[in-house]
Structures are given as structure tokens and as C-alpha cells.
Amino acid sequence: MAFVDNSAGTRRDYIQNTPHVLFYETGLEQVPAINTNQYAPGALADHLTSFGGDLLASSQMSSLDWIRAGATASYGTVTEPTANPFKFPQATVLVSQYFYGNTALEAYNKSVLVPYQGVFVGEPLARPFGTQASFTHGVLSIKTSVLRQGTPYSLIAGRSCSGPFTTLKPDISSSPNSYTTITDSTGFHPYYELIEN
Per-residue pLDDT tens for 108-165? Predict the structure, then answer.
């Protein structure tokens, strides 16, 4: 991803002094100003170059520089000879898998088709997205990013995981790339489940 600043008639392919950075993907060998940014908890940052995964690199920036700057995890390749795009994280897959509740390591693993030339650094179990639930003052609240768009879901409840079940909320749908919040005020049930219709 490149940042273009045309306000002053200049073009930059890096960001600086930017708060809340969650994903930073670039092809620069040396990325300027990464220490000036503020990285959100769980941030993933990569420079997709030949030797970004060489942790002691001198010819190109090391993936460890992202960790030092505040990113949570990074992935980089360690060898040549090919410029095979499949050895790098595919940004659309990385972002969507992370948002669907996968850990950082799982999201990277699913986004790199040829992983034998790379190395992962950082917190493998970082998981800032997924599903969070709470029961407060008789109201169940579920906030989730794991629902697939276009697939209807139902919230069911029961005395145990083997039922019997009651449908509390039918036809729950999700919005693209956003959280879905589901609430229910029918009282506490020992077991809840979101199922596809």
C-alpha cells in the first residue's frame, strides 16, 4: 500500500506521524519514518523485499525494525532468486483472515502460498479481532467479525451443548468488513451458539 500526499504537490510512498496504523504493506527496501508512526495493538507491517526476513540484514531493512517501531508482527523473505509474488503475504488475504479472528501467525500462514523462503517475527498469538461476548444486567451482547457476508445466521440457546435449543434471533446478517453486534434480553441461558441458517 502506498500513501500519496498531493496536497503540497509531492508524492510519498511511505507514511509518517500517522496514528492507529493497523496494516502497513510496502515494497521499499528501507522504509523511512516508521518510528514516527503509532501502531495499533495487533498491527501487522511488512516490506516485501528480497531480504526483509534476514534478521541481521545490512543491505535491506530487517523485519525486526517493524517490531522495534511498535508493530506486533511481520513477515519477510530470506532468499532469492525469484520475485515470486506467492512468497509474500497477499494483502487481501492477510487482512480478511486477521479480521475474521485468526491469530497473526494463522493470517500470515494463510496469506503466504510459498512460505519456505520466509520467516515470521513478532507475537504469533495476537488476535485483536474475532468474537467478544458479555452478559450485563440481563442482556447478552455479542460483538463479532467472523460472520460471512451474505450468509444468514441465527442465535440459538439451550441448557447444554446438546440442547434442547430455542432460536433467540433468526436471520442475522453481517455488513462487509465491519463488526456485527447482536443483543438478546431474554435472560441467561447456559449455552449460546451462532449457527448458519
Answer: 999 999 888 899 999 999 999 988 899 999 999 999 988 888 899 999 999 999 999 9
Which residue type sits at 20? Answer: H
- Provide the whole-model pTM: 0.77
Spell out the alpha helix ranges (H) of the chain: 64-69, 91-99, 104-111
pLDDT single digits (tens) 24-77: 999 899 999 999 999 999 999 999 888 888 888 678 899 999 999 999 999 999
Contact by Cβ (8 Å): 126, 96: no
Segments forming the whole domain that contains residue 76: 21-122
Task: Mark whether 115 and 138 lie in a shared domain.
Answer: no
Residue 15 lies in a domain: no
Task: From 18, 48, 20, select the one nearest 34 (Cα to Cα).
Answer: 18
> Is 40 within 8 Å of 18 (Cβ atoms)?
no
How many structural domains comprise the chain? 2
Of 174, 130, 171, the closest CA to residue 150 belongs to 174
Question: What grid cell was written down for 87?
Answer: 512468497
